[in-house]
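Hello,

I think I submitted the iron/sulfur cluster job twice by accident. Can you confirm which output corresponds to this input? Input:
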Amino acid sequence: MEDLEKSALSLIKKNKEGLLQSDLWKMLGLDSREGSRLVLRLTKKGLIRREQVMVNGRRTYRLFLVESDSGGKSIIVDLSNVLDIPCTTCPYIESCGPGNFYDPATCPLMDSWLEGKLESRSKLEKMSLKY
Ligand code: SF4
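Support: Only one job matched these inputs. Its output is below.
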């Protein structure tokens, strides 16, 4: 995250009632073009939300920090290792479960998928030992 984004988040956080975007731009010394881009970036990242308000007869936005359960820290979740799990395309997923006819514990598709994962992992470990 850029220093500018950190500064903006810090200023928005201090204003529990929301900070007018024009005030934020002034505080950061940005023109409206730069300020709009910054606000858009933070909004797209899900770090702030905008609420439309009327001030002196003009439409503008009040900015609020998006509170997260992680205490403001980002959590990066890597799902790349499970995206190809056979269950995502399995026609039996609705009836699959422990003790059922289709059971993850005895599923040949799941076994084969897990074996493939273990094989790739073991290959990677062997490669890393070489270097
Ligand atoms: S465990 Fe097997 S049967 Fe069950 S949903 Fe996954 S692929 Fe389908």
